[in-house]
Amino acid sequence: MTTVKEKSTIHGQNGDGGELLTVKNLYIKFKDNKKQVTAVNNVSFSLKEGETVALVGESGCGKSVTSLSVMGLIPKHAGVVEGSIKFDDVQLNGLSPKKMRKIRGQDISMIFQEPMTSLNPVHKIGQQIGEVIHLHEDCTKEEKRERTIDMLKKVGIPRADKIIDDYPHQLSGGMRQRVMIAMAMACNPKMLIADEPTTALDVTIQAQILDLMNDLKREYNTTILLITHDLGVVADIADRVMVMYYGQIVEEADVYTLFKSPKHPYTIGLINSIPNLVKQQKRLDPIVGNVPNLGDITEGCPFRTRCNVAMDICSVKNPPLFSLDNQTVRCWIYEKGEGVL
After folding, report:
1. Distance between CA atoms of residues 125 and 164, nearest Å
2. Alpha-carbon distance 71 to 90, whole Å?
């Protein structure tokens, strides 16, 4: 059974600070067979200092490209990014590549999904972490090595003074993921984007990685944007949750409210499809159908073909986000502020 851990009440550890990242009216469009498809459709959200926010949804819903747009990693020849992305009062979209490189690693860092494809196989671990420090800070070769070893120790890597001279292939999957976290945290960034950081790891290592991220957050008051499809991970680490479907945020709430009282039919389906180890279940209750291909839905609610409470208006008009007491939800059932789900 998925349970939500009690969060710290220390000031600054639960997003008590001011807004650090503000995304408004974000559109991300790509060319597909000479036509343009929208991968992210009018998404707006903000993250506060010291807050962990999870962006949840099935594969292909737009989670990862949203995070890549914040990092400025969508090439202009591949996609079009429209809207506003503001970090610490600095407008990110529109910055020159040189200025964006100064922000990456120093102010915003990212842990990618698969460390084996993110780490350079022909360079030693110490070289790769040390390069991040060298790019953003002025220090000697000895200081750089000492800081790299210290960072490896902080992420729980034993024999850090030996591991620093190893190559990525010499480490296990869990150790490589720790190296990625060490690299991301090398310059104490204000914000960390973690894209499926525990995918393909066994549950024991997964728990260790999540505990590590929580420890680093407490130590540095780092803001975390967690990209995941695993609601168990969300319950373990997040303060607030944004549920994404077909390029749109369909529900947003604090983690307690979302698990206790999900509102959108898609969110309810995600939670109902989690195995329950307490109650006896003969079968899981999956969401029927598949996520539509980009460009297939041009009007109406994109979830209507999989929804068991769809109404006539759902096929004609896409609902806006409706505000309830502790959450927002994109569903016509809540048009008058009250729903029946």
Report:
1. 5
2. 13
